[in-house]
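Below is how a single chain appears once it has passed through the pipeline. First comes the sequence as given, then the structure the pipeline wrote out for it. We keep one example in the README because the format questions we get most often are answered faster by looking than by reading.
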Amino acid sequence: MALVFSLLASAQDRVAHNSIQEIVWSDRSLEIVGTEKPSFTSFQLTDPPRLVIDIAEAVLGDAPKSLNIREAHVVSMQATSFGSSSGSIARIVLTFDADVESDLVRRD
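Resulting structure:
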């Protein structure tokens, strides 16, 4: 399973925060599309197995807040944002039905 970050906006479309516009599951990959290059951290949790991706200075725009996936050991995706101003964080959580390895890739 791969996680791909894509950039949606051009230079003239810049905004103060990265606005997450799309979260799409396709071909065993989750693609997260935002308006800025992402600055993110990730960590894994257990019981149930989960991958948490925190995108700094980001908010959820038009992206879905949840997806039922049920493919490649991925059960679901939940998205939320919290904080305010420069402290805002968009959090994406993938829940798995088994321990899996994942690759995070930033595509410009």
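DSSP finds no helices and ten strands in the chain.

See the next section for the split statistics.
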